[in-house]
Design brief:
The chain is mainly alpha-helical. It has five helices and no strands. The longest helix is centred in the C-terminal third of the chain and has 14 residues.
């Protein structure tokens, strides 16, 4: 994969005036200091895990059959002290919903 760039002298001058940065020096410094690393290069052929240091899943007991985990946004999660409080509010909302209309047939 190769990348090609076109140099725009007017845009470079405008950026230098606006930001006080010399684009050529910045690009040279960036490309010289960083090596292009692909996902393949960063992955090992094999990983060895020390299972003797593994800990049991502390949530496994709560995740019984039929339980669905839901991620709450931080502002919503801040309102509730427990999953029971979330479930109680959701059940009250469900109870307030109108009954679905039955389709004939």
């Amino acid at each position: 994969m190769s990348l090609e760039f076109e140099w725009d002298a007017r845009k470079a001058e405008a950026n230098r005036a606006r930001h006080g940065i010399d684009s050529v020096k910045t690009m040279r410094k960036t490309s010289a200091s960083k090596k292009h690393q692909t996902l393949h290069d960063s992955m090992r052929k094999e990983y060895r895990f020390d299972y003797s240091r593994a800990k049991p899943n502390r949530f496994a007991e709560k995740m019984s059959k039929g339980v669905v985990a839901v991620v709450l946004e931080p502002d919503v999660a801040a309102v509730f002290k427990s999953s029971e409080a979330v479930n109680a509010l959701l059940r009250s909302v469900i109870a307030a919903l109108p009954e679905p209309k039955q389709q004939p047939g």
